[in-house]
Each structure stands twice: as structure tokens, then as C-alpha cells.
Amino acid sequence: MIFNFISDMTGTDPSHSLYELPEGTRAVVHEFRLAQHVVEHLMNLGFVPGVEIEVSRSGPGGDPRVYRVDGTEVALRRDVSQQIEVRPLFDGARP
Amino acid sequence: MSVSAVTSPNLASSDAAVQQKMRTVAVVGPPNCGKTTLFNRLTGLRQKVGNFPGVTVEHHTGVLRDDEGHELGLIDLPGIYGMNPKSEDEKVTVDVLNGDMAGTPRPDGIVLVLDSNNLNRHLVLAARVIALGLPTLVVLNMADELHKQGGQVDIVSLAHQLGTPVSLVSAATGEGIDSVQKFLMSSTAAPAPLELPVLQDARGCREWAVKVGANASYRRPATPLWTKRLDSIFLHKFWGGVIFALVVVAVFQTIFAIGQPLSSLFQDGLDVTGGFIGNHLPEGLLQSLIINGIWNGVGAVLVFLPQILLLFLVIGILEDSGYLARAAVIADRVMSKAGLNGKCFIPLLSAYACAVPAIMATRTIESKRDRIATILIAPFMTCSARLPVYTMMIGAFVPNKPILGWFLGTRAVAMLGLYLLGFLMAVGTAKVLKSSVLKSKDAPFIMEMPPYRWPTAASIGLRLVDRAKAFVYRAGTVILGVSVVLWLLTNFPMQNGKPPAIEDSVVAQIGHAIEPAIKPLGWDWKIGVGLVTSMAARETIIATLGTLNGIDAESQALDLEAALRQQLTPAAAVALLVFFAFAMQCMSTVAIVRRETNGWKWPGIQFAYMTGMAIVCAYLSFHLVQMLS
């Protein structure tokens, strides 16, 4: 998929943090509650509001966790992923 | 058109030449886009490492020459994600591109390397770099992977939209490289101002990038299946940890099982060569200075070279294959308990071979505070210079009794205990530092996972050459100075025109002078002399104690162990081991810390802290052992 922007209206509950999502789920970035320079770094890596993210997998111990964004994978520790607000997406097959 | 890379006589003159007349082109791009592979392909072995004045970030330069003899300087700049630098590395690139780097003129052109597998993200960087207004060639790298995984891009359309030439290449296979060479050797006009969305608006930039990509019929390749498969093993909840532990053990095994014998072989080579040179010099002071001072002193440090290169070979393979990023994720959980992050793991692992390359490897840590903390604790890791000292002392004082049959003996336990001691001190120090002076809240762990790739011999080989040069140059120059001073101290004052017996030399006087200070630790003046000479490199104490006890080199080890048992009580021996575990007796490390932190403040604090810790803990352990026995 080339154009992976999803309208902000998609998804349901807007109050999820990225950290809360289970592995294998997808969501759309909504908002950051982080310092400006951290946000810039995240945006450079593809975490831009409106872009779709997939929770890829976590390492042993559950933290940090790897997220797939834009065809690349980025590892984030809990203290960052908790501060990224997302709107979960639901596949047809899954509830 | 053939373009050949040529060597310049030396760094200083070539840099001056670059500054004066030569056109220079900067190679820039995001991390992991194959930028260095392209640079290496363009310049080959004929490149040099340099430093910008005032910063410790290295950059590589190479000189290309076309058929008509026109020369062109090529600079490989550290990877950037955007034009707002996060790390010291990124700042260098941005400063050079903006023409703000003192002593380095703004480049005449830019080769912007992007990963063609990830264009949507990288085109945002392209927009910012093109906006600088310099003649730019956009190189879409890794064309082989793009095509193999079913991706595609129309470069003509892309060039039209960006207003710059675009070429699709594979630096790894060489495909399309000639188009880059053509660009380098022709003066291209500056790009027409690009109509970009407001640069500050990240979302606008993204939408623009996606639109440009779509217009150029860009289709992103599928993620290689085996990257997903390997991740499901390497980051597996259980096996991930097991493999990580095995990799760490394998790195150690390589350093000690292969590196150690290589180092001894190298030592033998140095001894033979030293003897050969000595035989061809007239006997006297000069011969003694060259052989006993310079050759043996510098040799004492060079002897670690095989081990260090082996370490970098192993780490290089792990890094280029993509595993190291996964290892950092796994290590992060443990490292975070000490207030550090996963990126500090690699330098600390390297420190088990030698603190000097470990401190050089801290450059990849973006957070300045985390970097300083890592530099400060790295020398507590049991480096290979401590190993001969530990071996000698354990051999002298710990009887070899089996604990778990053939598997584990008392001596092995003592050795492991010393490793643990250094590690615990490092962790404790990190914890204290990170919860006080070096507390950092705003430097979270964010790490890109590169795809798995086969490491190439060329890129690892070039890096090894680099590391070897850096180590020999930086450690070697300091050791040269210290060795000459030590030689002077052991060979003066002259008696009847001859060097004195070591008991009458200046160094012995120093030993006697500090004896009152070290007496409470159970050490005599000979140990004092050993402590002084081991400032150059820790294991020098063995040779010194050998000389002071009148033991010739042939039967050194066993006789020295016997002499040590006479000289030291068990408590004093324990105190000495503890001292060696903690003290910063390594001038090369002091020198490298000064360089990497740009001043004497941190090496000063570090030296005082480590030496203070060493004395206090040696004193405490001396009394503890005395009380127990």
C-alpha cells in the first residue's frame, strides 16, 4: 500500500496509548505527549500523525517493543510508547 | 569514463588542498541507507579518517581523479534523519551542509543517498536537503533489494518532481555506480527551488512525500520474509534471551580462546624483532632506550592489537548483519536497571577487551549524559590488560582445587569473582551517576531495527583497518611518551657512567617515597614501583616485579609466583587484586577520555574517582581478610 494515511475518523476509542495495544494489532498515530525533540525524532522515523503502525513484537521481558511503521521497524521503550496516543484499527476478521 | 581514486600523501596536506582548490562533494543520507558502502565503492581503500576541529566525530575523505586529471574531494558525513540534529554526529553533518563548520568550506555539491526500499520516509529528508540549494544528486540505493522484493520506482518522474538528477543504484553490487561518478565529475546546476509544503509541518511533509512517491509510481517492496522469521527467533520471548547469552559467550570465547594465543604469538614476534634490532645496535644507553624503553613499552600496548581487531571483527559482523540492534533491545531491559539504555551495551561489551575502543564506540549513544556515564564506567570492566596480573596473582595465592569436578576449580572461581567485582562496581557507579549528576529524563530509548543483511568483507575490512590505525596512533603515542619517561626513571641517576641497579634508580626512590602510603595496604616499596610502572599499562607490573626480584625472563612465571608469596601476605595480595580491579592505571584510557570528552574535566574526575575507590576498597579488603584469617 502506497498511501497509508488513514482518515482520523477511522478507529474507535481515541484514548489508547500505543503501549496498551496487544502484539499484532494496528493503529493510527494520533498525538504525542512527549518533549518536542523526542517528537521530532519519532517523526523522522515515520511516527507521523495519521500514519499506520503495527505492533510487531516485544523482546524477552516485554519491553522495549518493536513497532512496524512504514516498512521499517523501530524499538520503543514503555516510557515512550505510553505517551503516544493512537486510534486502534480493527481488521475485518478480528473483533 | 573511468574515474580512479588516488591517495593523498597525508591528511594535513590533502585537507588543505581540499580547502583551497578542489571541488568537494558531501555524501549524506539517513543511517542504514548504505551510504558508507557507496562511499567505499567510490573511493576504495584510498580514504582517510579525519576529525573536524573541536569535535570528536570522525569523517572519511577520499580524493577522486578523472581522466583529465581533475580532482574532487569526497566527504562521507555521519547519517542524519533530519536537519534538526539529535546527536553530536548529526550536528556535524548539518553544520557542514550549512557551511557552519569552522575550517571546512561548504561543499560544492551533495550526493544524497536514500534507501529505495523506504522512500516515503526518506523523501522527507530529501526535501530538506534539496532545500539547501546546493547541486544535488539523489541516489536511490539498494536497487537490488527493491527489485528482488517486487518494488518499483520511476526515476525520471522523480527527478522531474524533485528538480534534481536521480539515479537508482546498488552500492553493494555496483549496479548504476557510473551515473554517480558522472555526476561527481560534472558541475551540475543548483536545483530549482522546490515547492514544498511548510517544512515545519511533519504531516504536510509526509503527505507531500507520499504524493511524490505515488506520482513516480513508487511501489514499496515487501518486507523480506526472512527478516520477519529471524526476528521471531532472535526476539523470541525465551529463545531470544538464550541466543543473546550464547552470542555474548561466543564473543568472549573468541577474544580469549583465539585472541589470547594470537596476542602471545604477536608478543613472541615483538620479542624476537626487539632482540634482532638490539643485536644490531651498539651496546649502551641508546640501545637500552630503544629496546627497553621504546620497543618494550610500545610493544606492551601493541600486544593487545590482535585481540582488539578480533573483537571488532566479531562486533562488525554482528553489527552489519543487523543482530546488534536486536541485542540492544534485549540488553535494554537489564541496562535500564542501571539507569542506562540498550545502546550502552555494545561499548561495555567491548570494554572487556580494552577500554580504549570501548570509549571510541560510545559515539553512537545520542544522549550526552548516557554517553559520559558509559565512558566513566567502561574502565571498570575487566579488560585484557588486567588478565595477566590476575593470572599471576591467582597462580601465586590460590591453590587449584576442584569445586565442581573438572568443570570448575578454585582458580576459575577467583577469576570469575574478579570479573564480577568490576562489573558490580560499574553497575553501582552507573546507578549513582544516573540518579544524580548525569540524570537524564529526555533521552528515551528509540532505536531503528535495520533489516538483516549479509555482512560484506569489504566494509568490515575497511573498518578494521580504521580501528587498528586509531588504536595504534592514539594509544601508541601516549605509551611512547610514558615508556620513555619510565625508562629515564629506571636508568638514572647514572653511576660511573652506567645505569644504576634498579634499587638505586629514581623509580626505586619513588617506590620508597610512597611506601609509607601503601604500607597500610600491606605493600612494600617494590609493589610501589610496580604501581608506578603499571601506569603505562597494567600488566607492566609483572615485568617490573620480575626485575626488582632479580628474576630473569626465562623462568619468570613460576619464580615470580614464589617471590610474590614471600613478599605479600594473603591479605595484601587480595588488596592488590582489588586495587587492580578498580584503579584507572592506564594512560591510554585517560588520553582517549580526554579526547572524546574534549577536556580534562571528565578524565580528571574519573581518575580521581577510580583511584580513590581502588585505595579505599583495597584498604577495606586488606583488613577484612586479616580479620577473617
Can you walk through the features of this model?
By secondary structure, chain A is α+β, with helices and mostly antiparallel strands. In chain A, 14% of the residues lie in helices and 34% in strands. Chain A has one domain: Roll (SH3 type barrels), CATH 2.30.30.90. With 629 residues, chain B is α/β, with parallel strands linked by helices. In chain B, 59% of the residues lie in helices and 8% in strands. Chain B has helices spanning 11-20, 35-43, 88-98, 119-130, 143-148, 155-162, 177-185, 202-215, 225-234, 239-279, 285-302, 305-321, 323-337, 345-350, 355-360, 368-377, 386-397, 410-434, 457-491, 506-518, 525-533, 540-548, 556-567, 570-582, 587-597, 601-628, and strands at residues 4-6, 23-28, 47-51, 58-65, 71-76, 109-115, 136-141, 166-168, 446-449. Mean pLDDT of chain B is 82; it is low at 1-20. The interface between A and B is large, with 39 and 48 residues.
Concise structural overview:
The complex is a heterodimer of chains A (95) and B (629). By secondary structure, chain A is α+β, with helices and mostly antiparallel strands.
Largest sheet report of chain B: 8 strands, mixed
Task: Report the total helices of chain B.
Answer: 26
Oligomer: heterodimer
Q: Name the poorly predicted regions of chain A.
A: 7-11
What's the structural domain tally of chain A?
1
Mean pLDDT of chain A: 79
For the secondary structure, the number of strands of chain B is 9
CATH topology of chain A: SH3 type barrels
Main-sheet strand order of chain A equals: 1-6-2-3-4-5
The end-to-end span of chain B amounts to 81 Å
Average pLDDT over all residues of chain B: 82
Proportion of beta-strand residues of chain B: 5-15%
What's the CATH class label of chain A? Mainly Beta
Given helix and strand content, the structural type of chain B is: alpha/beta
CATH homologous superfamily identity of chain A: Ferrous iron transport protein A (FeoA)
